[in-house]
Design brief:
2 domains, alpha/beta, 8 helices, Rossmann fold, single chain, 4-stranded antiparallel beta sheet, Alpha-Beta Plaits
Amino acid sequence: MHIVITAVGPDNVRLVDPIIHYVTGEGASIAEVQMYDHDEQALFAMLLRIHLPAEQLGTLRSALQEIGRLKTLSVRVWSPEERASRPRLAICVTYRAETPLALLRAIRDGQICAEPAVMIGSRPACRGIAEQFHVPWEMVGDDEGRVDDHQLVDVLDRYEIDYIILARYMRVLSPDACWKYAGGRIINLHHGLLPSFPGLRPYHDAYASRMLTYGATCHFIVPELDAGNQIIYQSTFTVPPGVKLDEVVRIGQEDNEPRCLVEGVRRVVNREVQLHFHRVIAG
């Protein structure tokens, strides 16, 4: 069984040894190790990807939780195989309804085999969609849309989430949250073609460059912002010369972005792709 272990907490000495010693003592083969010390934040973070027989998952989880308690680490033990037939999704939203609506329709119609466990909003704009599809709604933003990341992580843990889908979620996840759900569990939709058009206004930037082809990118989120573009899927559309910017944005938001996110999530849920050492590889 493919298992991902993450550990996050205050930086200290000898945090790695007990985890490594335990998993190797249980006969695990280690496929990936990443460790980071953020000195300015006094934060330690680790990702460990291992292979171990499925019947040992429960014991492993209990033992590492106890190590986490003793070392003051937030430890998560997760396997994509545990709920492979129907993984649990958290759909994170802000204002735009097109992408979460397309995702929920794809799940309803059997295009994506997953459970929409919760919809999480930094703003209340999409609450009606959650109610329409009978998906639990959790609000994590204040009146200004500022998100309490500890509350967000608590919601994700409470609903036992497998994958976090950022469906035009207009907030940046904290490094702490990214590390706790590292290992290819956070999927983002960017409304532009990466790496050419990053930033908040990719349609405007592409239009200013006189582009005729526009696109969207579905990619994994990793804790290091400069680690590269972990692209899962990209979709594009082409317009004739002279089309107004408003029309380009409309086509992108109403048609292309939803299509891109649905296909990207489908590929991850079906385990056609996975993240390994910050690179997207075939599943």
